[in-house]
Specification:
Strand content: 15-25%
Low-confidence stretches: none
Helix content: 25-40%
Largest sheet: 6 strands, parallel
Mean pLDDT: 97
CATH topology of the largest domain: Rossmann fold
């Protein structure tokens, strides 16, 4: 597996692969890879195999522009050697690991913002977050020119922003969304789970319980968003240490709240477990 450091190297590799008749899959990450990321790389590898000949690139870049001034950029977990080992084990052909200066050269003044969506869900709590996400994903897609890019459903609001950006800019990349990967006890995998103490780890399970509660209510026929949210609030109320950020039932394409859930409606929650902000969601049946 090769490690690429510059946009020019990534673009050269991608175009060389395509000249050989290979498709290119990209898995954008911020590193601190876990089994959820591994599932994305495997999905990219499987799609490449279906194409008869395809290649997979994994980007590892902790993007500073998606962190707010009081967020955890400096302490965000970084484990580059272990990340490369996991990427290689799962079948990645290259890892793209640029410096901040490579993606944001001195004097950089161009950013990508998806208006409306960027101010909803996580964007409401983290102003500027999705501007940073859209900008870095656009840079990666322009550099790698992939046929497909793979994202996890756990970051459902991010997926909505990226899909809208790709559609609006007419980028020739298919966005593939892969299911949430969970621990055996239900906790959604996240690089930020390493911040949790033992007690906080147990408290964090309320997020997955809340998601299961919303799914169960929907499966029983409840379609009113207000009733779904009220039921989930009761679940959170049982764990007083948790501070909820949002509990929302929204259209996944627009992230706008809905009154009546239909198949494919997004149920999403965010909560603070101690100082750590975690998210979870489900696509309602």
């Amino acid at each position: 597996m090769e490690i690429l450091r510059t946009v020019a190297e990534l673009r050269h590799w991608s175009r060389q692969e395509r000249s050989r008749g290979n498709t290119v899959g990209l898995v954008p990450t911020m590193g601190a890879l876990h089994a959820g990321h591994a599932s994305l790389i495997r999905a990219a590898r499987i799609r490449a195999a279906r194409d008869s000949s395809g290649s997979v690139a994994v980007s590892i870049f902790v993007n500073p522009t998606q962190f707010g001034p009081n967020e955890d950029f400096a302490r965000y977990p970084r484990s580059f050697d272990a990340d490369c080992a996991l990427a290689q084990a799962e079948g990645a052909d290259v890892v793209f690991a640029p410096t901040v200066e490579e993606l944001y050269p001195a004097g950089a003044a161009t950013f990508v913002e998806v208006e409306g969506l960027s101010d909803r869900l996580d964007g409401a709590s983290r102003p500027g977050h999705f501007r940073g996400v859209a900008t870095v994903v656009a840079k990666l897609l322009i550099a790698a020119e992939p046929d497909r890019a793979f994202f996890g459903q756990k970051d459902a609001a991010q997926v909505a922003v990226v899909r809208r950006m790709v559609a609006d800019l007419r980028l020739a990349t298919e966005i593939v969304v892969c299911p949430i990967v969970r621990e055996p006890d239900g906790l959604a995998l996240s690089s930020r789970n390493v911040y949790l103490s033992g007690a906080e780890r147990a408290q964090a399970l309320v997020l997955s319980r809340a998601v299961r509660q919303a799914e169960a209510l929907a499966a029983s026929g409840e379609r009113h968003a207000s009733a779904l949210i009220a039921g989930v609030r009761q679940t959170f109320a049982a764990v007083s240490e948790i501070r909820t950020d949002y509990i929302e039932v929204v259209d996944w394409a627009t992230l706008e709240p809905v009154e009546i859930a239909v198949p494919g409606t997004l149920f999403a929650v965010a909560a603070y477990v101690g100082p750590t902000r975690l998210i979870d969601n489900a696509i309602l049946p």
